[in-house]
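Hypothesis: this fold can be encoded by more than one sequence.
Test: take the structure tokens below, design a sequence, compare later.
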């Protein structure tokens, strides 16, 4: 249709800023939710929790770069 902007349903906003690398607010919320879930489900030491947080951030970055895509 002429004059209508079509936004694909496949658009996925980036998780991290390409300029500075900082996580966008929606990414920070996802990481915080995952950390909260892990804290509730397992009794982790502070070191294990740090490793889990770092892992969540890396997973988000890899997904943002398309390294975890199934296509």
């Amino acid at each position: 249709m002429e004059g209508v902007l079509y936004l694909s349903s496949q658009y996925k906003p980036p998780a991290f800023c390409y300029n500075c690398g900082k996580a966008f607010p929606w990414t920070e919320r996802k990481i915080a939710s995952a950390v909260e879930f892990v804290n509730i489900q397992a009794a982790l030491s502070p070191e294990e929790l740090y490793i889990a947080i770092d892992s969540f951030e890396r997973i988000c970055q890899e997904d943002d770069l398309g390294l975890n895509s199934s296509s």
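Confidence is low (pLDDT under 50) at residues 67-71. The helical segments are 25-41, 46-64.
Hypothesis status: open.
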